[in-house]
Amino acid sequence: MMNRGTSNIILYIKSIYNSLTKSEQKVAEAILKDNERIIYSSITDFAEISEVGDATVLRFCRKIGFKSYQSFKLELAKELSNQNNPAISTLNDEFNANDSLGEIARKTINLNISAINETLTLIDLNEIQKAVELMISAQKIYFFGSGVSQITAQDAVYKFTRIGLNVATYVDYHMQLMQASLLTNNDVGIGISFSGSTKDTLEVLRNAKQAGAQLISITHHAKSPITKIADIVLLHGSKEDPLQGGAFPTKISQLIVIDILYNAIYKRIEKEAIKYKELTSKAILDRLL
Asked: Which of 204, 218, 278, 287 is surrounded by the fewest CB atoms within 10 Å?
């Protein structure tokens, strides 16, 4: 990050405001008006709030010394947290230092229940139905994701393999890129990203799209780079700022979407699914005591 002469992002933005272009001033005004909202927004959401394009937001972030929108959000979240902003916390503002163990347990469970209920609200059943049809008819299904979302991808592969779907995922980014480039119009690529702005996942999906594959995105942000290229968008609940990357409610919400797809597909191919579950169960039976 370049030397801005001050460690305070908000003060720095105010100090350079008059030197910004008109479109960059719109970005600055949006930040100054509502810091917290920016923390929880994807780059596409923020661009819409600012009434500019994604490129203008990125150019603004670079002008004030950040390599990306995500690095800007992370630094802003740190700054607000250090100022004891009640809206931003390194854990969750639902918790406080005086909570008993029982209160921590109750609040933790309630956070996850809230994320699940939000997912139920956000889920579009028409999009779920389209995804089910696409996955059943696909020759190959590849799940793509980075970080915690890659763990969700691995869980999805395990579940769908048990009922006979031809599914796979790779942890290594280069392997994901190569596999995406080999997909055809008979295949499906499923990208998982809470922010919808993860560079690696976005690039992999672009490769898959160019190869002709149909794309499904699983994300929290309806307006984000990943949803722009997806044929089907499946939204999940949870809310996390940049300091809470990989929050468990996010993980739970992603798994709920996977589970909905799994159960819907199982119902559609029940006879075959039962046969494959028996075969896969027998395959690992000897590994159990």
From this structure: 287
